């Protein structure tokens, strides 16, 4: 996986560099039971920082490995990152994409894990490595094809000794989640969320993996990288970003080298160069382990030292930063592609550790914070553009600041450019209220507080500090440094960096004359040996960890149900962590009842009241550290208020005043309608919307469905402002319920709601929902839509039975099992796709159908193989006992360590009620996992998957699709965009 953008904005740090150190001495324990005491004592020195919200400890082992730990016991799980200070910028200039290749290879096992016979396999792998070097040095295409045929042949032999996917099998079995990795310009980071009782097993596994990388099953994984590259070539946003980077950094590797690599280098990979890179950069003094979760500091550092301490320290890799020359005048680029048009303006900014970098972040927030920035209020709120935003991307050697805008109907990209630059000019001149700086500081604190409720964000803070060489105290001091920024600082830095020295990229809609793709080489599927295990795997799985007991939600204890005036239900759960609250009014009515309801909800954000303009309202909310949102779906309305509970009364009063006193505004409505019409046209240029929304709804509900039931342009333009305001004011007059997650007690909450929530003496019942009937898939059909793209994407969709809680346990097991099977077969064995999955999805509402949805995205010339491969798996589920046992273990370990907390308790309860459940359904899944058999899984597959009526949805370029192949799967029908979108 690659990462396009920079680190999270909150993960910046500047300030003092003082580091406090402590010493700790404790007795080491035996590795077997974690309790026995030996006579040996070892002293570990660690760093801490005053006023650290994470209460972190930062250790450095004797071999240089950095270890960042924070204890956060939200669940018996630990979020882990293993970070390497090496990314795309460290690739050799003649082998770009190498860091990313290596990232993929680190998942392939070792000389013990993933092999049946290492001695014989190594002989074949050495042959493959030599052949790739020969292939790389050969220019004649005929000769290259012959060499690649040899590579393919030898790879088939080598694969007979390999055991594919063993690392992932282990991680699945022990209950890991989110197993992944990403490569970006400065770093490569490996991600796992593991049960806390599996910590020692995981540390041993990872230490082995990073000490002994074996690039096996290389050529099929290389094909997956080709597919990943093709996905970027189909992504207009990616192409824009690459154009910006290349123009901002013509000399530095940030712009001169691509993370995934050039097509030329992808076609000429070198296992030898990958090994050199691995040997140079994957050394302990260039790596860090970052953890946040349910840990014991003393035990954890002891275990890390035990398994990682023997890793050999080597010279720390050096990197010479290329100095870019100043940009003297705007650099203009143009990108063509099928997506909607937009314009981007980008500036080169200083490195993350430069004193000006944190001021750049402040400028970014002053311009765009999603609520009360200059771009938010002056452009988005006033509907002067369809949409605009700004953000900064700090990096190790330089940074990047970008503004992007989408035009309204009839608006030119140059007009959008001028509006964006105009907002930046206001910052440079100081034409903004100084109080906005303090509001940004306050909201930054709130955002950090929210972020640190999540172990992933907590551990990612460590990754940022490590990758960018920030002492932890410097990182922790960031809020103080951020709060000290003055208006004069902002103006000075803005004028220093934001002049006529920008890159301007016009993204226009059209066919790219320079479109490229990585061509498919001839690849023979390799064996995956599903029922074979390496000795390492057998020994590893034979070790047992102390089991953890699951904790299920008890709706009678974990939330409080009470009422406020007019018997409005109030469902409450307490926030014991911080001073933030979330409040929701939920109505069981939506756009299926009235299309104008959706309009009214959107209209609300553009309206003022008798006391405030729309812009002033946003400023007031932002100052209070609160925000409101209104969301409508087909059958529900969610009105939400979130923020600091200390300002709850003020926020609620302001919020209620909008609902009660919104003032009609004809111009705002005219602009909103024009924006809706332009957004509709833009949606028809988005392949994700076309496939995942428009085509899926067409398949499920027919030609007239929830997605394409829209007010016509004539109807939109006929709507009156007062109509929508009346709808807004009527929302609280219908029966609804209140959900609250926050720190205040129930009686105080109810008192505040009784005083502040404006409702009539009698609430109206919500109207009956308009239900769209789900169609039966009477005959096999292939629906396709034409879209100018390199790849083709397809969904196999089968309608199943209505929601039935009795099959939920076997559904969960089936999804665990088939997830690994599909990945192994279509990606690892046959190299048909970078992204593929199959999932049986249970309905979100009682009496609605379940659906089996299977996806694959592949090159168009692989369409036939990809479709045949997926259909074969759905028809005849491969039977692999090892995969089944892993799926059972994964299911049990996942549920036993899963904790549903905070506001998620409320929404879990909401979902249960919609399904007619009175208890946490995970109880059934966990209890059944202990007794489910392979026969039950086969019975489920035979009854609910195999041979079920299906439709296949395909999106791709008409001149690349193989229609004869499509006809094998049913009647082929093209769906045009008017049919799909209803306009």
UniProtKB/TrEMBL annotation:
Name of one Pfam family that matches: Peptidase_M16_C
CC cofactor: Zn(2+)
Xref: Gene3D superfamilies: Metalloenzyme, LuxS/M16 peptidase-like
Residues that span the membrane, as ranges: none
Superkingdom per UniProt: Bacteria
Residue stretches making up the Peptidase M16 C-terminal domain: 272-442
Entry keywords, A to Z: Hydrolase, Metal-binding, Metalloprotease, Protease, Signal, Zinc
Similarity annotation: Belongs to the peptidase M16 family.
Official protein name in the record: Insulinase family protein
Upper taxonomic lineage: Bacteria, Pseudomonadati, Bacteroidota, Cytophagia, Cytophagales
């Amino acid at each position: 996986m690659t990462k396009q953008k920079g680190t999270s904005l909150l993960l910046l740090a500047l300030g003092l560099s003082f580091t406090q150190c402590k010493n700790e001495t404790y007795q080491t324990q035996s590795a077997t039971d974690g309790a026995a005491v030996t006579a040996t004592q070892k002293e570990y020195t660690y760093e801490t920082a005053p006023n650290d919200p994470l209460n972190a400890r930062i250790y450095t082992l004797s071999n240089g490995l950095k270890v960042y730990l924070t204890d956060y016991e939200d669940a018996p799980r630990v979020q882990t990152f293993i970070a390497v200070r090496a990314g795309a910028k460290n690739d050799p200039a003649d082998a770009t994409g190498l860091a990313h290749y290596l990232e993929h290879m680190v998942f392939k096992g070792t000389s013990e894990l993933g092999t049946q016979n290492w001695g014989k396999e190594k002989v074949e792998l050495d042959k493959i490595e030599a052949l790739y070097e020969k292939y790389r040095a050969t220019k004649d295409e005929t000769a290259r094809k012959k060499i690649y045929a040899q590579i393919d042949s030898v790879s088939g032999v080598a694969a007979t000794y390999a055991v594919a996917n063993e690392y992932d099998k282990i991680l699945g079995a022990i209950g890991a989640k989110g197993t992944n990795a990403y490569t970006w310009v400065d770093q490569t980071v490996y991600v796992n969320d593991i049960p806390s009782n599996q910590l020692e097993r995981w540390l041993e596994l990872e230490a082995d993996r990073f000490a002994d990388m074996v690039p096996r099953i290389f050529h099929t994984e290389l094909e997956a990288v080709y597919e990943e590259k093709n996905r970027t070539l189909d992504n207009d946003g990616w192409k824009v970003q690459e154009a910006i980077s290349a123009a901002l950094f013509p000399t530095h590797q940030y712009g001169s080298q691509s993370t995934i690599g050039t097509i030329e280098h992808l076609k000429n990979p070198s296992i030898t160069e990958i090994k050199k890179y691995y040997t140079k950069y994957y050394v302990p003094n260039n790596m860090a382990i970052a953890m946040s979760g349910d840990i014991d500091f003393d035990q954890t550092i002891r275990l890390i030292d035990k398994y990682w301490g023997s890793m050999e320290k080597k010279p720390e890799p050096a990197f010479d930063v290329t100095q870019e020359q100043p940009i003297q005048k705007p650099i203009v680029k143009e990108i063509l592609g099928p997506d909607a048009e937009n314009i981007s303006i980008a500036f080169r900014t200083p490195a993350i550790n430069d004193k000006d970098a944190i001021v750049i972040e402040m400028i970014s927030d002053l311009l765009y914070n999603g609520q009360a920035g200059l771009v938010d209020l002056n452009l988005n709120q006033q509907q002067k553009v369809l949409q605009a935003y700004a953000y900064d991307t700090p990096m190790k050697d330089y940074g990047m600041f970008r503004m992007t805008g989408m035009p309204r109907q009839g608006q030119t990209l140059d007009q959008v450019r001028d509006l964006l630059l105009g907002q930046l000019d206001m910052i440079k001149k100081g034409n903004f209220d100084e109080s906005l700086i303090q509001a940004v500081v306050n909201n930054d604190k709130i955002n950090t507080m929210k972020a640190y409720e999540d172990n992933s964000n907590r551990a990612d803070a460590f990754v940022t500090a490590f990758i960018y060489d920030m002492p932890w105290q410097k990182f922790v001091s960031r809020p103080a440094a951020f709060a000290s920024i003055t208006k004069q600082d902002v103006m000075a830095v803005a004028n220093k960096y934001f002049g006529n020295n920008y890159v301007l990229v016009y993204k226009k809609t059209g066919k790219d004359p320079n479109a490229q793709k990585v061509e498919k080489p001839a690849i023979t599927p390799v064996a995956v040996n599903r029922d074979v295990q390496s000795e390492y795997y057998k020994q590893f799985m034979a070790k047992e960890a102390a089991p953890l007991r699951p904790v299920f939600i008890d709706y009678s204890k974990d939330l409080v149900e009470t009422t406020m005036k007019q018997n409005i239900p109030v469902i409450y759960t307490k926030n014991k962590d911080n001073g933030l609250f979330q409040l929701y009014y939920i109505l069981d009515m939506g756009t299926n009842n009235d299309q104008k309801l959706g309009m009214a909800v959107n209209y609300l954000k553009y309206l003022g009241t008798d006391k405030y303009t729309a812009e002033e309202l946003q400023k007031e909310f932002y100052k209070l550290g609160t925000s409101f949102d209104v969301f409508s779906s087909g059958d529900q309305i969610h009105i939400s208020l979130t923020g600091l509970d200390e300002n709850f009364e003020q926020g609620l009063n302001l919020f209620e005043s909008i609902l009660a006193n919104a003032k009609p505004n004809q111009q705002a409505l005219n602009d909103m309608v024009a924006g809706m019409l332009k957004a509709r046209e833009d949606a028809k240029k988005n392949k994700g919307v076309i496939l995942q929304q428009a085509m899926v709804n067409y398949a499920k509900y027919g030609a007239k469905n929830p997605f394409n039931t829209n007010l016509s342009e004539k109807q939109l333009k006929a709507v009156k402002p007062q109509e929508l305001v009346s709808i807004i004011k009527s929302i609280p007059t219908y029966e609804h319920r209140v959900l609250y997650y926050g720190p205040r007690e129930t009686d105080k909450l109810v008192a505040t709601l009784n005083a502040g929530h404006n409702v009539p003496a009698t609430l109206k019942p919500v109207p009956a929902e308009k239900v769209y009937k789900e169609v039966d898939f009477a005959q096999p059909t292939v629906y396709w839509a034409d879209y100018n793209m390199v790849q083709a994407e397809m969904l196999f969709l089968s309608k199943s039975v209505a929601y039935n809680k009795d099959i939920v346990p076997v559904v969960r097991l089936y999804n665990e099992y088939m997830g690994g099977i599909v990945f192994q077969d279509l990606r690892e064995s046959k190299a048909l796709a970078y992204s593929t999955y199959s999932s049986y999805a249970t309905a979100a509402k009682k009496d609605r159908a379940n659906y089996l949805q299977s996806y694959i995205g592949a090159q168009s010339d692989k369409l036939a193989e990809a479709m045949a491969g997926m259909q074969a798996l759905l028809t005849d589920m491969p039977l692999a006992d090892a995969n089944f046992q892993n799926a059972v273990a994964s299911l049990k370990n996942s549920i036993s360590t899963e904790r549903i907390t905070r506001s998620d308790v409320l929404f879990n309860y909401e979902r249960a009620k919609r399904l007619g459940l009175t208890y946490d359904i995970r109880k059934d899944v966990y209890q059944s996992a202990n007794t489910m058999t392979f026969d039950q899984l086969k019975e489920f597959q035979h009854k609910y998957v195999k041979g079920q009526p299906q439709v296949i949805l395909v999106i791709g370029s008409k001149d690349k699709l193989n229609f004869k192949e499509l006809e094998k799967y049913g009647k082929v029908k093209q769906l045009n965009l008017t049919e799909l979108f209803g306009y």
